[in-house]
Design goal:
Elements (H helix, E strand, L loop, with lengths): L8 H17 L3 E2 L2 E15 L2 E6 L3 E6 L12 E10 L1 E10 L2 H18 L5 H12 L6 H10 L9 H12 L7 H17 L4 H19 L5 H15 L7 H17 L9 H7 L4 H15 L5 E3 L1 H4 L1 H20 L5 H20 L6 E3 L5 H15 L5 H21 L1
Parallel strand pairs: 1-4, 4-6
Antiparallel strand pairs: 2-3, 2-5, 3-4, 5-6, 7-8
Helix pairs in contact: 1-8, 2-3, 3-14, 5-6, 5-7, 5-13, 6-7, 7-8, 8-9, 9-11, 11-15, 11-16, 13-14, 15-16
Length: 412
C-alpha cells in the first residue's frame, strides 16, 4: 500500500461505499396523498410545529401539529390521523409511542434542559444554549437569516468543533492510568445518545472522538481518515435517509477538508485549541473548509457569506468559551452560580453580536448552482488541499483558489 493510504484503508473504504449504496437503494419517497389519512411512522426531523415522518413503507410526510398536541422528538414513533395535502398532513389526532431507550433519552434531555433554562435570563440566551448544548434550533426565521448572512451557522450546529472542545476539557483533567480517556468516553456516550437526539454532524463527530479515545486506551495508532470512512459507512446503514440531506454532506465534506488540512494521523479533536491559535487563528482551516463546501451551499442559497472570515474568529472564540463553561455546568447540573452566570453572559453576548455586527457588503450574490457543478468544484477543492504546501504559500493558494471559485460560481 502506498504511503498515503493507511493500513486497512481499502477495507474501510469498501464498507463506506456499501453503506452509501445501501442508502441509495433505500431512498425514501415523498408522499402524495389528498384525502383523510391515518399512518404511523418514525420522526426523523422536527422544525417548530412540524415533524418529518418516515413511514414503514419508506414514504416521507411533513406532519403539522397544533399547540394542544403532545410534543414530539426525533426518534419517536407516532400514529397520526388527519387531512393530507400532497406530502403535508394536518394532524387532528396524534399518539406518541416511545420505547424504553427513547423514554429515557427524552426524560434526561428534558431534565437537563429545565436545569439550564432556570439559569438563562433572556430568550436569546436560551436559544444559544439550546443550540450549543442540546442541538436544538429555536431561532426564528429572521434570526436564522441573520446568522446565515454572518456566515456562522455552522458554529451553532453541534459537530466536530463542539466535540473537540468537550474532549479538550477532559484532556486537561490531571488523571493517571488513562482514567481521563475512560471518563471522556463515558461522557461522550451519555451526551451523544442520551442528551442529544439523532443528528448527522454530532454522530459523525462521536465516531471520530470515540475511535480516538479507544486508540489512546489500547495504545494503537489513530487515523482520522479511516474514522471518517467508518462514520460514513455506519450511519449510512443505520440512518440511510441522512444521505439525501445536503446538511449530511456539508458536515462530512467539511470534516474531510479538515482531515486533509490537519493531517491524516492527527485528528482536529486531539488538540483543537492549540491548532486554532497556532494556525493563523483558524484562517487556514476556514479557507480549506470554504473551498470545499461553498459550492454545495450555493445549491440552495443564492449568495456566499464572507462573514466566516470577518467574524468567524470572534464567534468561534465565543463558542469555545461557552462550550467549555457549559461542559462544567452540564456535569454539575448548573449547581454553581458563577459558572452559570458566565454562561448566560456569553449567550447574551452571542445574540447581541448577531444583531449588532454589520451585515452589509459581506455577501456575494452568486445565484443557485446546479448540483453537478457544485460537486465538481468541491472535488477540485479537495484536490487543491492535497498539494504539499505549508504556511503562507498554502494560505495564498487557498485564498486564490477560493476567490476563483467564487468568481466561477457568480459567472456561471
Amino acid at each position: 500500500m502506498s504511503k498515503f493510504l493507511p493500513k486497512g484503508f481499502l477495507l474501510v473504504l469498501l464498507f463506506s461505499l456499501f453503506g452509501i449504496l445501501y442508502a441509495l437503494l433505500n431512498k425514501p419517497q415523498k408522499g402524495n396523498v389528498y384525502s383523510n389519512l391515518t399512518l404511523d411512522g418514525k420522526v426523523i426531523k422536527t422544525v417548530y410545529n412540524r415533524a418529518l415522518v418516515l413511514t414503514s413503507n419508506n414514504t416521507l410526510f411533513w406532519v403539522y401539529l397544533n399547540r394542544y398536541q403532545p410534543r414530539v422528538f426525533v426518534g419517536d414513533t407516532i400514529l397520526v390521523e388527519g387531512r393530507a395535502k400532497g406530502f403535508k398532513i394536518f394532524a387532528r389526532h396524534l399518539e406518541v409511542k416511545r420505547n424504553f431507550f427513547q423514554r429515557l433519552r427524552v426524560k434526561l434531555h428534558l431534565f437537563l434542559k429545565r436545569r439550564f433554562l432556570k439559569t438563562a435570563t433572556t430568550k436569546g440566551s436560551k436559544k444559544v444554549g439550546s443550540a450549543l448544548i442540546f442541538g436544538e434550533n429555536f431561532f426564528s426565521k429572521k434570526e436564522k437569516k441573520l446568522i446565515s448572512r454572518l456566515g456562522i451557522y455552522h458554529i451553532l450546529v453541534i459537530s466536530g468543533m463542539h466535540y473537540a472542545l468537550f474532549l479538550t476539557f477532559f484532556l486537561w483533567i490531571p488523571l493517571r492510568w488513562k482514567l481521563r480517556y475512560y471518563l471522556a468516553l463515558v461522557f461522550f456516550l451519555f451526551f451523544t445518545f442520551l442528551v442529544l437526539f439523532p443528528s448527522a454532524p454530532a454522530y459523525r463527530a462521536f465516531v471520530s472522538v470515540a475511535l480516538f479515545l479507544l486508540a489512546a486506551i489500547v495504545e494503537r495508532p489513530y487515523n482520522s481518515l479511516k474514522a471518517w470512512l467508518i462514520a460514513l459507512g455506519v450511519w449510512s446503514f443505520i440512518y440511510p435517509y441522512w444521505v439525501f440531506s445536503i446538511g449530511f454532506w456539508l458536515s462530512y465534506l467539511a470534516s474531510l477538508a479538515l482531515i486533509i488540512y490537519y493531517g491524516r494521523n492527527k485528528t482536529p479533536e486531539e488538540d483543537f485549541i492549540k491548532n486554532f491559535f497556532s494556525k493563523f487563528l483558524g484562517l487556514e482551516a476556514a479557507l480549506a473548509v470554504g473551498l470545499v463546501i461553498y459550492p454545495l451551499l450555493t445549491t440552495f442559497l443564492d449568495y456566499i457569506s464572507l462573514g466566516s472570515f470577518l467574524y468567524g474568529v470572534l464567534f468561534t472564540f465565543l463558542a469555545q468559551l461557552y462550550i467549555l463553561v457549559s461542559t462544567f455546568n452540564l456535569l454539575t447540573l448548573w449547581s454553581f452560580d458563577i459558572p452559570s452566570r458566565v454562561q448566560d453572559f456569553l449567550g447574551n453576548l452571542f445574540v447581541e453580536l448577531i444583531y449588532k455586527l454589520p451585515k452589509e457588503g459581506i455577501t456575494v450574490e452568486v445565484g443557485k448552482t446546479p448540483l453537478w457543478e457544485a460537486v465538481l468544484l468541491s472535488l477540485l477543492g479537495l484536490g487543491i488541499l492535497l498539494l504539499p504546501l505549508k504556511g503562507w504559500k498554502k494560505i495564498s493558494l487557498l485564498a486564490g483558489a477560493l476567490s476563483l471559485e467564487i468568481i466561477l460560481l457568480k459567472v456561471f
